[in-house]
Amino acid sequence: MEILSKEVRADQAVLADLITPGAKVLDIGCGDGTLLKHLEMTKLVDARGIELSQKGVNECVALGLSVIQGDADTDLVDYPDNAFDFVILSQTLQATFRPREVVEQMLRIGPRAVVSFPNFAHWRVRLALGLGGRMPVTRQLPHSWYNTPNIHFFTIRDFVDLCQELQITIEQSLALDRHGRKISFRGPWWIWNLFGAQAVFLLRR
After folding, report:
1. Which long-range contacts (CB under 8 A, 24 or more apart) does 58-66 make?
2. Model confidence band, residue 183 (pLDDT cutoffs 50, 70, 90)
3. Interacting residues of 163 by C-beta distance below 8 A, sequence separation 6+
4. Which of 27, 75, 161, 201 lies at a C-alpha separation of 20 to 30 Å from 110?
5. pLDDT surpasses 70 at 134
6. Torsional class of 64: left (φ above 0), alpha (ψ -120 to 50), beta (otherwise)
7. pLDDT tens by residue, 81-92
């Protein structure tokens, strides 16, 4: 009997649409394996993962997934060049110590990378800081300042600037509102930066 995982988040569903069926995929920081299992079942991918927490690894193994325990900041160097078709980092980049190096390693390990992250420039976050004078707690940033796993807070504009600095091509990009719905208008980046609660980017070298 096929083991089912939990329902995927809105950003994970959008991310999954960017993955080619049958591809070889590495999910960095794969958590409980929900996204990997979804990709394995719906896209028939060769699914592999790396997860920092032993609890997460155990949950992935219980789903029948091939996942090892490892740290995105230190262990990606052990993977050979172009070992995967897609390398995924879902809602994890902000929790790494060296996000720039992590993105570079992703695009060394595979020709395409998919990254999703919360946008710290969303208008609700700005309002909480500007009027409330406190670090915001939102659906996308649910932790208080003293127990958040996030290390680097950044914006959609910051990430676009990083891609330009590293000469990375943005093949596709989407912004989602706080309910996980795609923002239909494109316009200049500042619009996404203001109204996008989170973003998903498909990158290539």
Report:
1. 59/31, 59/32, 59/33, 60/30, 60/32, 60/33, 60/36, 62/3, 63/3, 63/5, 63/33, 63/36, 63/37, 64/3, 64/37, 65/30, 65/33, 65/36, 65/37, 65/40
2. confident
3. 169, 170, 201, 203
4. 161
5. no
6. left
7. 999 999 999 999
Q: Reply yes or no on whether the pLDDT at 173 is more than 60.
A: yes
Q: Are 111 and 204 in contact (CB under 8 A)?
A: yes
Contact (CB, 8 A) for 163 and 189: no
Full-model pTM: 0.88
Instruction: State the residue for tokens 């262990």.
Output: 75
- What does the angle CA 159 – CA 162 – CA 167 come to, to the nearest 5 degrees? 130
Return the pLDDT at 25. 98
Check residue 126 and give left, alpha or beta (phi > 0: left; psi -120 to 50: alpha): alpha
Domains and CATH numbers, the chain: 10-120+150-204 (3.40.50.150)
